[in-house]
Write a structure and sequence with these properties.
The complex is a heterodimer. Chain A is of the alpha/beta class. Chain A contains twelve helices and eleven strands. In chain A, helix 2 packs across helix 10 and helix 6 crosses helix 12. Chain B has 26 helices and two strands. Chain B has a domain of 325 residues. The chains are: A alpha/beta, B mainly alpha. Chain B: Keywords: Membrane, Transmembrane, Transmembrane helix.
């Protein structure tokens, strides 16, 4: 019993010491990555964090905690102390947990440290698909209902959101949606001819497009992107897309809500500087991500907008298990 | 000429040479400890080598990969605990050999055969990468499903005396593999709304429990039996032994390369399929399979090391990972400013030849480190059981915890250990359980993908099978293997043999 009390006292002393930001960090920081080793979240976090460590003057030990579409990692960090010694390194998925019935917690239980970057969705088709552009694809689907195979990554994933956007703007498309474990395996299947069309993040598809192994049909942006200057953008193809774009998956670093402001500021400053390093910006460029580097209020409103757009889009597509209204997620302004 | 100089980069550079050596050495030990996996080591190395140049970083990772795949066989042979899933088949004949006092010989053959398999894998990578990757890319969901069915039929080979008990074990394994959040629909299966079960049951925890803890518990029965003295005079296998197994090892290496090159299957499935193949083609093994047949060591070990070269094939030609480790290496290439994809071979041919060179060097170091230090290792088996049993328990607990840093996995591991012990006691084979867990996702996901792709129409599904040469071949193989395991076949075979005998009598 004595040991327990002693331990508790020293833990208390430690945590109160941690509130003085000038001392922070006094011990190792843990970084919990929501996705598995080798994935894009993992790559981005492992690339940016060494720079942040330098600025911070401490060590950040990264660990992949996978499972439950990232919910296991999120719950683990949320169950810990709000002292800035456990960071959640995640992607956009938690903002849909509530409406998809995957969990009761999301980023509203966290404070954003830095929203690093955003991806661009792009619609690609296999190289020998019987259509070469977006209009051709729509025409082909109309002529051959129930024949074209779209890849997906399960409800709430990027392909399901993009497909919902297409259905909302162009009217319901009669296609087969074949689920894969992630955009990597789905793009592999696309090249092997198992699926015809795949909505993917630009970074995952860019090398295949360059090599001619897949055809880009449409870029889901409001302006042309540097990597694919000749591919038409969605808003030019149909103005209806203006309602949803720009939209894309993102990467961000979070701490539990209640973490002292000065600690959050120190972390934010470290990651902001880290994300400006030339080798990191080059990595983001190469993989087709748009650097955002949002902190504080800006990051917060980015998260709210993203959640409101996406949750209501999924609700209107009938893919949700609970209405966003139940969780107080505001309907996007028309 | 450039290709040649890139190939010899590692040979000519002492620093790179040393890094491959260190990597391979570390890999052998990481591979030998159940729960410490190559995947884990390589992902840690990504942050560790962040500020390095790309060549040294890749050199170290390749060393660990090569050494780690081989290292899994060590504990499989000595303690009956596969250090990695790809060494499960190795335990089936390796451990009986160690129990006869032939651990040294078993390790020797394993090492030389791993070297041989590794070499075939690298040769195919170097000479035929684009052809193999085109072939691998052609696998449709229905082909993966048929491959999984083919894998399920291995239950027959892994069952020992009772096929019924084997099928029960295999079904249990498939059931264990199904638990958790279904990744295709995000619906919980057998999760009973418990957050604990959402991410499923860790396959490594099941493996360590079933093999490690149940082995330790079973050993308690023999507390007073003295440990087996190991003969260590014959470590390097004779040339005759190697030559005898050359045809088999060429076949199993080919299985290894192809299964390794398929995105979605890796060394574990390759090793099990190779084991089954060996059992099928070996007419008269010196000893029956499962009792210490050398062929039972040769097949899985050539296959899992050949799968290493195989896994690099789609990675280098298409930027598609062949397994979990190459997936992380693709991430590493990105971080170091390269863009792995179909253009890598054209834009950066040096990288390809550098990797081939590093693999060759790692393969040689694996042979050297594998054949030295065997004496020390075999001492482990000679330890008194009072020391050995706690050691196995310790290794099992550390290993199960290390996979996800999760204490839950330790509980799973212990529970499956106790279950495994009773299953052993009542003659239920454990191999099929692991087989079931490995294959359940492959089978389930691809069956659903295949049938969804055909608008849930069985007619269209079978039409697809019949019209694709690859699917048809796999389908016929499934039917033939299935029929060859039924009593009908044995009866026909017996009648055929009897008629033949009659003919010779006359």
């Amino acid at each position: 019993m004595k040991h327990v009390i002693l331990g508790a006292v020293s833990a208390l002393a430690l945590s109160s010491a941690a509130t003085f930001a000038q001392d922070y960090p006094t011990k190792e920081i843990q970084g919990i990555i929501q996705w598995g080793a080798g994935g894009s979240t993992d790559t981005v976090m492992r690339a940016v964090t060494p720079h942040a460590e330098e600025v911070l003057g401490g060590t950040i030990v990264m660990q992949n905690v996978t499972g439950g579409v990232g919910a296991i990692a999120l719950n683990q960090v949320e169950a810990g102390q709000a002292d800035g010694y456990t960071l959640l390194m995640g992607a956009e998925n938690p903002l849909l947990y509530k409406v998809m019935g995957l969990g009761q917690k999301d980023y509203s239980d966290f404070t954003p440290v830095d929203i690093l970057a955003r991806g661009t969705p792009v619609l690609v088709a296999r190289a020998d698909a019987p259509f070469d552009d977006y209009a051709g694809m729509l025409a082909y689907i109309a002529e051959n209902p129930g024949e074209v195979r779209f890849g997906s990554t399960g409800p709430g994933g990027l392909p399901s959101v993009v497909t919902a956007m297409i259905n909302a703007v162009e009217g319901e498309q009669d296609v087969i949606s074949v689920p894969y474990d992630g955009d990597g395996p789905a793009l592999t299947a696309l090249q092997g001819g198992a699926i015809d069309v795949m909505p993917a993040v630009l970074g995952a598809a860019i090398e295949g497009i360059r090599a001619g192994a897949m055809k880009p049909l449409l870029v889901f942006e409001t302006e042309a992107v540097d990597a694919l200057p000749d591919v038409p953008v969605a808003t030019a193809a149909n103005e209806g897309y203006n309602k949803y774009l720009p939209w894309g998956p993102f990467f961000g670093i979070f701490v539990k809500k209640g973490t002292p402001d000065d600690v959050v500021e120190k972390l934010s400053a470290a990651y902001t500087e880290a994300a400006e390093q030339p080798d990191f910006t080059e990595l983001m460029d190469n993989r087709g991500f748009t650097l955002l580097n949002l902190t504080g209020e800006e990051a917060q409103s980015f998260l709210e907008d993203w959640q409101s757009t996406t949750a209501w889009l999924m609700q209107d597509a009938g893919q949700t298990k609970a209405s966003p209204e139940e969780f107080g997620i505001a309907k996007p302004a028309e | 000429m450039d290709a040649l100089s890139a190939f010899f980069t590692v040979f000519a550079n002492p620093e790179l040479l040393a890094l491959v050596a260190v990597g391979t050495f570390a890999g052998v030990y990481i591979g030998a400890i159940p729960g410490l996996s190559v995947t884990m080591a390589v992902s840690i190395l990504i942050s560790f080598t962040f500020s390095w140049d790309v060549y040294p970083a890749i050199a170290l990772m390749i060393g660990i990969f090569m050494g780690g795949v081989y290292g899994g066989s060590r504990t499989a042979i000595l303690l009956n605990i596969p250090g990695a899933p790809s060494a499960i088949a190795t335990a089936m004949d390796g451990y009986p050999m160690a129990q006869r006092g032939e651990a040294g010989e078993a390790i020797g053959i394993t090492t030389v055969m791993s070297f041989f398999g590794g070499f075939i894998g690298i040769a195919v990578l170097a000479l035929a990468a684009p052809t193999v990757s085109d072939f691998a890319l052609g696998f449709q969901p229905r082909d993966y499903m048929l491959l999984a069915v083919l894998g399920i039929l291995l239950v027959g080979s892994l069952s020992g005396e009772s096929l019924v008990k084997g099928i029960f074990s295999g079904a249990l394994g498939i059931l264990i593999g199904l638990v958790g959040m279904d990744p295709l629909t995000f619906t919980g299966r057998f999760t009973y709304d418990l957050p604990l079960l959402q991410s499923g049951i860790s396959f490594i925890a099941v493996m360590i429990g079933m093999f490690g803890v149940s082995e330790a518990l079973a050993q308690i029965h023999h507390l007073d039996t003295p440990a087996i003295k190991q003969k260590i005079n014959r470590i390097v296998p004779s040339f005759g032994t190697i030559r005898k197994h050359l045809p088999l090892s060429l076949q199993t290496s080919t299985i290894g390369v192809i299964i390794g090159a398929l995105p979605g299957t890796g060394g574990d499935i390759a090793a099990l399929m190779a084991y089954d193949h060996a059992k099928r083609v070996t007419r008269k093994p010196e000893r029956p399979f499962g009792k210490g047949a050398i062929e039972g060591l040769v097949a899985p070990e050539t296959a899992n090391n050949a799968a290493v070269g195989g896994a690099f094939i789609p990675m280098m030609t298409l930027g598609i990972p062949g397994d979990a480790v190459t997936a992380i290496m693709i991430g590493a290439l990105f971080i170091h400013g390269l863009n792995p994809g179909p253009m890598l071979m054209i834009d950066q041919p040096d990288m390809f030849w550098f990797i081939v060179g590093a693999l060759v060097v790692a393969n040689f170091f694996m042979l050297i480190f594998g054949l030295t230090g065997i004496k020390l290792f075999t001492k482990i088996v000679e330890m008194p059981r009072a020391v050995l049993i706690p050691l196995i328990m310790l290794l099992s607990i550390v290993g199960a915890y290390a996979v996800n840093n999760s204490i839950t996995d330790v509980y799973w591991m212990l529970a499956f250990g106790v279950l495994g012990y009773f299953m052993r006691l009542y003659g239920y084979p454990l191999g099929p359980i692991i087989l079931g867990v490995i294959l359940s996702r492959l089978l389930d996901d691809n069956w659903r993908r295949a049938i969804i792709s055909e608008r849930e129409d069985l007619g269209r599904f079978f039409w697809g099978i019949v019209t694709s040469p690859l699917s048809l071949t796999l389908f016929i193989a499934v039917i033939l293997i299935f029929v060859s395991q039924t009593p009908l076949w044995t009866r026909i075979k017996a009648r055929h043999a009897a008629r033949k005998e009659k003919a010779t009598d006359q």
